Structures are given as structure tokens and as C-alpha cells.
Amino acid sequence: MSDEVLSIEDLHKIYPGGVHAVKGISFNINEGESVAIIGSSGSGKSTVLRCINRLIEPTEGIIKLKGDRINTPVVDINEIRSRIGMVFQSFELFAHLKVLQNITLGLIHVRGMSKEDAESLALKVLERVDMLDRKDAYPGNLSGGQKQRVAIARALAMKPEILLFDEPTSALDPELIGSVLENIRSLADEGMTMIIVTHEIGFARDVADRIIYMDQGIIEEVGGPEIIENPTSERMKKFLSTWD
Ligand code: ADP
Ligand code: MG
User: Fold this and answer.
1) Which atom of ligand 1 sits closest to the CA of residue 197?
2) What is the mean pLDDT of each run of 10 residues along the chain (244 residues)?
3) Ligand 1 center to residue 167 CA distance, Å?
4) What is the set of domains in the chain, with CATH numbers?
5) Does this model's pTM top 0.85?
């Protein structure tokens, strides 16, 4: 129990308008574990991630981060978000800020670091994603892959307890996907606790300790990476057959 980072119990999300996107999902993530969530579009993967970092409110269920319940009205959402890093498909960088300032902004305003300390940490995380030489560039002058590596560096700089990736390579041209996946793979190898929602099934199999297959708002199948080769549920078999 002591090394449990995240626990989700019977999570439901019904959107205003009535779509029951997540229908009772439970799972735990331990320190250093990387878990991949796969499944067709509309199966509720993004909804689960958005509930975890409180971009949306779950309709029902309990989410705990290191034992603290985080989906209650009394918790400070900014504090929760500073403990949970999120990397989106669409990067979400500030276009009017240089790469370095995109990273120092949260460190200065959320973490209360001095400008000097924030810059020195920012340089370190940029080096980790091999983007140090572009620290003075504006996002508009970077490739999609480079933007995503900056977004990863920004999340890392906050020293999150867990990192959530929502289809981090879906918006990238095929030739740019590899470098981003390499960065994520080395973070996993270094023991970062993470959830990766991805369509890159081969990557999920190689990097994740556990695979969760979601279908229509539920976990249809969960197991080690070997379930990619040997799925038991008919739905997962069908899903995987479209990716060969
Ligand atoms: P995935 O990430 O697996 O593609 P999503 O979590 O984005 O799936 O969506 C799950 C379901 O919830 C889909 O039917 C989608 O149309 C619906 N949905 C997602 N976001 C909203 C929203 N803001 N309002 C209403 N329905 C939504
Ligand atoms: Mg999604």
C-alpha cells in the first residue's frame, strides 16, 4: 500500500446532456509503474485522465493521490494539478513566450521559485528532452515533435508525483513521433510513474508495465504487456486486429 501513488475506485462520468462516458472504473498505480490505456476513440480514455487532474468533475467515485482524496470540493485544485503533470495531444504551450519562459512560468508562479532557480531547473529539464539549444525559440518556430518535448519538459520541471499523457503523438507527423516516444520511454525507464493514453500499440507493449483496454466506458481487459499478443476478450481482439 505504501508505494501506491494513485487509486481510482468506481469512477463514473456522466456529461451534462447525458453521455455516460465512464461507467465504473477502478485501478491503482504504484510508484514507478507505467500504465498504458488503449481503446477506440470515444471509449472514455481522455475522460478518465481529465477526472484525475480535475479538468472535469467525476459524477461518482473516489480518486486518491498518495492516499489523499482529491475529488472533493475542499481540495485546492491548483495544488492537485501541481502534483499531477499532464501532457496533451495539442501541446498547450504559450505562443507568446519563449521555450524557457514556458517552463519557468509555473515554477515561479505556482512553485514560488526565484527566477534564477526556475531558469536553472528549466535548463536541466530541457537538456533531458534534448531541447536545450532551442531554449530561446518561440513555439511557433518549432516542429510538433519539438513542441511536445518542451511540453514534457514543462511537466517534468514541476516534479509531479505522476505524469499523464493523453495521446502525446497523435498530432505529430509520422517522422516526428519517434523522438517523443523515446523521451517518454526514458522517463519510464528512470522510474517516473505515468499513465499513457496512446494509439501506439507497439510502444505501449514495449514500455508499459500494465495495459488497460477500455471499451465503452469500462475496463474490458487489463494485464501485463503480453495481453497485446494474447487478448482474451473478443472486443480487444477485434480492436487489435485493426492495428496490425
Ligand atoms: P476517448 O478519449 O477514449 O476518445 P472521451 O473520453 O474523449 O473518449 O469520450 C468518451 C465519450 O464522452 C464520447 O462519447 C464523447 O463523445 C463523450 N464526451 C467527451 N467529452 C464530452 C463533453 N465535454 N461533453 C459531452 N460529451 C463528451
Ligand atoms: Mg481521447
Assistant:
1) 2
2) 88 97 98 97 97 94 95 87 92 96 95 96 96 98 96 96 97 93 95 97 96 98 97 96 77
3) 14
4) 32-43+76-240 (3.40.50.300)
5) yes
